[in-house]
Amino acid sequence: MPGKEVAPETGAAAADTGLTEAFLAAFRHHPSGVAIITAEGAEGPVALTVSSLISISASPPMVAFSLSASSSSAKVVERAASVVVHFVRRADMQLARLCATSGKDRFGPDVRWSRLDSGEPYYPQVELWFRAELRGRLETPGACLVTAELTSVSAGAHATRQAEALVYSNRAWHALGPVVDTASAPVLLWPDDSATF
């Protein structure tokens, strides 16, 4: 069309690269809550740490989270009928790190875990957890978005929680606490860690 400028191929590629870099930078500095997902597979229990857990409905209570296509544990979770969603706190950081590290035995002899009456593996030391039944799966390039309906909850779910929240931002673990005075209150940081999820 006369008067319409067409971007050259190299310009489009550069713009795509810039978009990807901006996307990665934005989400690297976008703090996310940390959760552990456990499920039973044909070869035994699996667990993984996610920072993608979101609420999508209160009635019925439903959540969603994404799973990497490159993770063998994620493939087991994706195929499972039900899972356990653990809401971890700062005190659970070592467990979250274990479940985020490739090649580690997440149900070894030194790890405290058990099974629900319905058979799913879970970590009883985490105060707040939900059993959930998977309701939907949306395949995307390199990942799968899963929706799940919460069907039961841990016994201490309604207790007041004083423990600091655990969040993940810029490839580091952070203990999240209230900031009373932004000019003088320090940001509570957990030591830098290289685990990614």
Automatic annotation (TrEMBL):
Domain of life: Bacteria
Segments forming domain Flavin reductase like: 27-175
Pfam family, one: Flavin_Reduct
Keywords: Oxidoreductase
Oxidoreductase recorded as keyword: yes
PANTHER family given in the database record: FLAVIN REDUCTASE (PTHR30466), FMN REDUCTASE (NADH) RUTF (PTHR30466:SF1)
Name this protein carries in UniProt: Flavin reductase family protein
Organism listed in the record: Shinella oryzae
